[in-house]
Amino acid sequence: MSTHASPTFIRPLREAGVTFVLALIVFGPISGLVLDGYSIEPHLGRPLLIASIVAAGRLLFGVLEQTPFGQKLLARNARKASGGVTVARGDEYKLLYFVVPLVIAIGVTLPFVANKYWLGNLILALIYVLLGLGLNIVVGLAGLLDLGFVAFYAVGAYFLALGAQYLDIGFWTALVCAPMLAACFGAVLGFPVLRMHGDYLAIVTLGFGEIIRLVLNNWLDFTGGPNGASVPAPTIFGLEFSRIAKQGGTPFHEFFGLEYSSDYKLMFTYLVLLVVVLLMVRFLTKLRQMPMGRAWEALREDEIACRSLGINHVIVKLSAFMMGAMTGGLAGVFFATYQGFVNPTSFNFFESALILAIVVLGGLGSTLGVIIAALVLTLLPEVLREFADYRVLAFGALMVLMMIWRPRGLIRPKRPHFAPEV
Amino acid sequence: MSEHLLEVRGIDAYYGPIQALREVSLHVDKGEIVTLIGANGAGKTTLLNTLFGNPRALVGHILFRGEEITRLPTYQIAKRGLALVPEGRHIFPGMTVEENLVMGTIPVGMEHADEDRQAMFELFPRLEERRDQRAGTLSGGEQQMLAIARALMARPEMILLDEPSLGLAPLVVKRIFEVLREIAGLGKTIFLVEQNANHALKLADRGYVLVNGVIELQGSGKELLGNPQVRQAYLGGH
Ligand SMILES: Nc1ncnc2c1ncn2[C@@H]1O[C@H](COP(=O)(O)OP(=O)(O)OP(=O)(O)O)[C@@H](O)[C@H]1O
Ligand SMILES: [Mg+2]
Questions:
Q1: Is it the case that residue B202 has pLDDT exceeding 70?
Q2: Taking a C-beta distance cutoff of 8 angstroms, is the pair A270, A126 a contact?
Q3: N or C: fewer beta carbons within 10 Å in chain A?
């Protein structure tokens, strides 16, 4: 008991002081000097406020650290820090029974309380969750560095836009077919790169992403080129989410006798997207316990071992590319629906880099980490909207710091324990 | 027809323009322990990998249980009851000991996984103590045991081992060879590639000596141990 008697405040106070100064340095230029046209306006109160909050947090943490409860937490973390991948055992899932319904409940109620602006942001955030999950299969699980992931995203989005234009395809058809088409593109990319690793793979995939974008940009007759293509509003049971329905159709708001509002479309998109994301998470968790998911991770860990165990590495690599591409295509459909319009600039390399950043920050291979990282990286910039000019700078700094302090990402990858109980 | 479990007839293998194996012929009968010894770069690893389809034998035939496997893809060969413990162990470092063992069942499915894992833990008590430890943190000897156990999880009829004693202390090497004898006692056929000619030839029923991609000598383990040429080249010349 003597080890944690009454907590001392001296050390935490000193640390909080240092934290305050550091936070000032970090946030000062970003939030204190706001670009206004060509002049810079000083807003010195804001960095002080942010730094105080950060320092208070550090102080609280410093004190908490000394209580018995904090010590227990620390000990647990220290134990975890020793290894790389930890393996979930059964009892950790008990918490999930409580947390998962809660998250779902929050997720479902959000669109009814959020305003249009935030609803849009939530949709984008979920789209990036989906993209992150998809790329996580390829990079995080199978260990294949893919810098052209945005290609599949584009395929999904353009499938809906062009499908609607030429074949009269709707949202639901695209939701089923676009992932399949994207998976085919995944296979097209997968075959030539079967024998490649690391840098070479990265360069080829990068090229692939650019090729798709350039084709979309330059094939004027078919894709509309830089002008892009419009995407029809989604339907539910034949009811359209648009102000005036196409001939013969009924708009959603008329059917229910509501005032027209584009919010319905957003809500609808959000809810379907939420369901898709939840199903995807469930599916991926299951997959990781099955031979295919295990084979992906085995391939990342040691290719020679895989061969000697008779794992068909062609199938394993292709399936990783295809599964990832499929998820990317799915995300593309939602993106197109949300925007109501697609053009090639949405699918440039920066997008691939952002998705990769989500996967890396999330902790390569961790589903939960990827979800958190996607939400943080897409919602945080909105929260910091005013500092948008510094977004990319902060983003880069964050990446560098993460690689120094948490090289394995936010959340330590955790595999579902797949050995059957004895 | 021959009744050999594994028969290799005059195979040549190349790495690009370089010929690594020249007309190699050998056979292993059911229940035998056969060893292949040779100096660095003689082509021992190449031979094992060729049996597993990579690189492919350009000339000649490889028969396992009387069936031609020369042109089969690697994963098909593993399904037919041949297991390879690759040189340098190659366990999955990020997975636990237990998970590594489960990975070994891939060619045959999970049906007997529980039972076989238990059997492996009996054969290697060290692994049972460390079942939840990440394999990358095991000692070299433990990793080698794990690599062998993982290969056995596929219930192979025959197991190919590439230098299991590589880089291990004499005491651990001794233990590995004891284990190999136990595995042979379980009815497995063993084809062992080794630099440690002394141990290998003492264990083996028969042996082959590979020099620059060519089989130079063959005979029973005892004969080869007594052969002055072998003593000169591989046993320190006493
Ligand atoms: N992937 C490769 N590409 C080109 N040459 C190779 C390759 N692998 C092996 N070789 C060459 O083939 C020859 C036989 O190599 P191998 O690895 O089979 O020898 P080894 O008998 O297993 O040697 P050691 O006892 O050192 O493991 C060597 O000359 C080697 O340089
Ligand atoms: Mg070798």
A1: yes
A2: yes
A3: N
